[in-house]
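Example complex used in Figure S2.
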Amino acid sequence: MWIQMENKLTKNLYLFPYLLWIALFVIAPILLVLYYSFFDIEGNLSLINYQKFFTPVYLKMTFSSFWYAFLITAISLLIAYPTAYLLTKTKHKQLWLLLIIVPSWINLLLKAYAFIGIFGTYGAANSFLNLMGIGSQQILFTDFSFIFVSVYIFIPFMILPIFNSLNELNPTLLDAANDLGASKWTTFRRVIFPLTIDGVKSGCQVVFIPALSLFMLTRLIAGNRVITLGTSIEQHFLVTQDWGMGSTIAVFLIIIMVVIMVVTNTRKRGV
Amino acid sequence: MDKKMTPLSKLFLLVIFFILYAPIFFLVIFSFNSGETMYDFKGFSLEWYRELFQDTRLLIIVLNTVVVALLSALISTIIGVLGALAIHQAKKRQTKNTLLSLNNILIVSPDVIIGASFLILFTMAGIKLGFYSVLLSHIAFSIPIVVLMVLPKLMEMSPTLIDAARDLGASRWNVLTKVIIPFIIPGIFAGFFMALTYSFDDFAVTFFVTGNGFSTLSVEIYSLARRGISLNINALSALLFLFTMLLVVIYYFITQRNKVNGMGVRKH
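Predicted assembly (539 residues):
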């Protein structure tokens, strides 16, 4: 009996590091965030943070963060879908796809930094505007620059899943639609789009959640004009040191994330 | 390109590729500027590169980044392989699914939340912010990706292979080292490689848990960029661009040779 138990113990000893990781770095952090959300800035147990979250200041911030994320996702989708579609029509399509993906490997901060140079007062964008006779504009630290740079950064993440689902599409279906007299638009609306909806959903998922939370982009590109949920969490944790309020916003961000994951749940997970 | 494509479609793709690559080349070109701004190209010079290599503080930061990346990739690969074995050998379907869901939490979580929650964790556990907190965080967020790279290889493996080894008298240890690991080694390499790039690239999590004395390259780039334009960063980004291209080529070979289903696209 004893020997058997010992045997089972050593048999399962290899499970220990992985389970320890789950306990310490997956479950514990979520519980700690939840726990901290119930403390005010002086360390007293209270629901003040939740009350504060439902005041106009925070609700407005949450709403505008959503609005920006929505715009970024929608614009990315509008650009990514035709791009992915055209990419599937090219010869050597895997090579072209690789070229789309390569920029996503480059450190995000460097790409943001490039736009500080391009959108600056004397930058390339303004020289172009001058050349066109429009004259210099304030581009950096505006909503436009924030949305533009975000879309630039997220585009490859949107193209990849859409490309994959378009690539799996059976071309005979399009011939069938064509033979049966469907116009190009009808074919797209009734055949192509419904069959690639999974790709669109996972693309939206991988763009929307980061768009709510990437604080470094707002800091570098939007100045302090745009405050997203992520920026606000960073602010509370690292600047004002109000970990309770930061945790409360984090709790809501987690809830939003779970809702989005459920809504855009696809049969195949597009990791 | 295909003949079926209209000139308009070609133009559209051309514009997309131009927008994707122009900012990157813009950065690289201005790293050779002898002037000091990112709008007025005065002439060719390697001045900024020279300055970069003389900056000992920056070289120490690069060294830190490399040490953290290698150590975290190594440790997370070991734990990740054990985790993949655990998930693979779970008998109940429900256990398997629960483990997989828990595994994926850190992959889908936004970096701010991982960073903030780890900051709370380390503070409560009394771990001083610095090298160890950064290393532990990098190990923690790399483990799930290693699991996801190794698991498909384990699924591919025929169970009769293990039965045969057991019938022929191999011990559990022998089965692991002589049968299982050689079979899943491409997945292990891919996992190690992904962990390495995750660690190199991470900014948000590191930013939360790094404290004052310790810095990695991403954190350093962020604090430099917040101060505005300095062509040092351009020179640095040109070198990092070359390094990234090298990684892409390695990644391409790993996936081509071993047919591992990687994700290709990086996490943000």
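Chain B has a mean pLDDT of 89. Chain B touches chain A through 81 residues (CB under 8 Å).
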